[in-house]
Amino acid sequence: MKPVHIALAVAVAAVWGANFVVIDVGLRDFPPLLFSAVRFLLAALPAVFFVGRPRVAWRWVITVGVTLGIMKFGMLFIGMHAGLPPGLASLVLQGQAVFTVLFAAVLLKERARQVQIVGMAIAAVGIVLAGLDSTVGTLAGFLLVVGAAACWGLSNIAMRKAGPPDTFRFMVWVSVVPPVPLALISVPFEGWEADLRALQHLNLSGVGAALYVAWGATLFGFAAWGYLLRTYDAPTVAPFSLLVPIFGLASAWIFQGERMTALTFCATALVVAGIAVGMLRRTNKPVPPKTDPAVVTAAAP
Questions:
Q1: Region 106-120 average pLDDT
Q2: Helices and strands of the chain, counted as H and E runs
Q3: I want to staple 31 with a disulfide (CB 3.0 to 4.6 A). Which of 190, 196, 273, 291 is the partner?
Q4: DSSP letters along 254-291, please?
Q5: Whole-angstrom distance, CA of residue 97 vs CA of residue 241
Q6: d(CA 104, CA 205)
Q7: Peptide linkage before 188 cis (omega within 30 of 0)
Q8: What is the dihedral of CA 37, 221, 91, 275, to 10 degrees?
Q9: Nearest-CA neighbor of 277 among 239, 233, 232?
Q10: Per-residue model confidence (pLDDT) at position 181
């Protein structure tokens, strides 16, 4: 890769990693489901009026909108609101790589390679260690983020089936799906009073967080990542996604003083190593990127 493209890939990973801290800031001003709805509303508007049609079947736009936008981000935001720290959340969410391989085997009948199975097992041990590092107060948050990782795995399979020629355009249209359902779900579960109060008392931190997760993590992140994937093959680009939990943990430590225990370090090493092992390609018979579930490892958190 050219140095400028390496810098771009690292910048995207940094934006996505820091996004977990920004989400945590936004959750102080918004109920989680409403915050997720606002995030996708800002990502969709006004961009949807300028990008053109998604150029894939509408069923895939809706499927990814539900699994990624409503289910994955809804559970992630609720899990973090329930007490899972942003750095640990950035790590646990990488379990999506394990779920992607599992769902590819079950739903697409793709046989996982031996190296993928080994990598999946290593990463799974890391996720379990991360769970052991959770306090009792964050156990519910941990389980919700694991559920979010599973939903992300499902959305990865749907995105592969959709095969959008323009990832940025596709994600703008996907962002149209979640706002209304998330807002409607927020009313009975979070209370219309809490939603109204959050909207009436908007401040710079809440607005800034919403704009960052919508325009920075979603629009910039996917535009840049999609450009890199169009320029290079997926196995060349995908390893940079391993930097996301590193930046997530570092950002949480620097900006919020999140405690880094020895168990967290071990869990991080295992998850990153497991995903890296799963990305290894066969030297005698390379697998095309589109049919290798190990390379589907990045999406804006």
A1: 85
A2: 16, 0
A3: 190
A4: HHH-----HHHHHHHHHHHHHHHHHHPPPSSSPPPGGG
A5: 11
A6: 40
A7: no
A8: 130
A9: 239
A10: 97
